[in-house]
Amino acid sequence: MTTINRNSICTTCGTKFPYNERVPALCPICNDDRQFINPDGQRWTSEEDLEKCHAVRIRKISDRLHYLTVRPSFAIGQRAFLALSPGGNILWDCIPLLDEATKEFIYSKGGLKAIAFSHPHFYSNMNEWAAEFNCPVYIHENDKPWIFNRGPNVKLWGGDGKPLWDDLELVHVGGHFPGSSMLRIGSFSPGGAMLCGDSLYISRSLRHTAVMFSYPNSIPLLKEEFAAFYEKCAKLKFDTLYGATFEGQDLEGNAYAVFARSMNRYKSIYGL
Ligand SMILES: [Zn+2]
Ligand SMILES: [Zn+2]
Question: What are the structural domains, with CATH classification, of the chain?
Answer without folding.
Answer: 3-270 (3.60.15.10)
